[in-house]
Specification:
Number of strands: 6
Shape: globular
Number of helices: 3
Structural class: alpha+beta
Strand order of the largest sheet: 3-4-5-6
Radius of gyration: 26 Å
Order of helices and strands: HEEHEEHEE
Distance between the termini: 69 Å
Helix content: 10-25%
Largest sheet: 4 strands, mixed
Length: about 190
């Protein structure tokens, strides 16, 4: 009987030695930026049964509205959505690069049509107003197409700039059309 009581007492010093590693306690140590590895998903808005539906997308640049719009213009993936039949009213990106129209379109500077060199949308912010300049060749969009653009770009922007205040967006296209909208009525905002 006595041998059974001594076993736990003999194991106690060994247990204490294993749990104490000799590292002194410190407070919080600031050491750089946040952990990486899992990137936030960017909501990209597609159409299902006449309504906008956000679909999460991985991007190399989370929080970049122009990158989110490129994902939107790539279209939905096969079988996505609750019905498996998502669509979009935003046309795909032009396949050909924009041809420089003037000497001001020097290499490294954006073309005069407002898009970047690959013909993708240019997104700029001024206060709580976003401007989305579509590439040349993109004519006026339907109301739901404009909402897809606004909701997608605003959701991406809000990843790095969270706010409850509505964000106003002005969308302009290659044909000279211009429309304003807000992200107030975007699903899951």
């Amino acid at each position: 009987m006595k041998a059974l009581h001594r076993v736990p007492l003999l194991a106690l010093p060994a247990l204490l030695a294993l749990t104490s590693c000799g590292i002194p306690a410190t407070g919080v140590v600031e050491a750089g930026g946040p952990a990486s590895g899992i990137l936030p998903l960017t909501p990209v808005y597609f159409v299902e049964n006449g309504r906008l539906v956000p679909m999460p997308r991985n991007t190399g640049r989370p929080g970049d509205p122009a990158e989110a719009l490129r994902l939107l213009m790539a279209g939905p993936l096969a079988g996505e959505g609750s019905t498996g039949r998502l669509s979009t009213e935003v046309p795909a990106l032009p396949t050909a690069m924009a041809v420089p129209s003037a000497a001001s379109d020097a290499p490294g500077s954006p073309p005069s049509d407002g898009s970047d060199a690959a013909g993708t949308p240019l997104v700029t912010m001024r206060g709580d107003t976003m401007t989305i300049q579509l590439p040349a060749g993109m004519d006026a969009l339907s109301d739901i197409g404009v909402r897809q653009l606004v909701c997608t770009a605003a959701a991406a922007y809000r990843l790095n700039h969270p706010s409850d205040a509505p964000l106003t967006a002005e969308v302009t296209g290659g044909g000279g059309w211009r429309v304003s909208d807000s992200d107030e009525n975007c699903p899951d905002r």
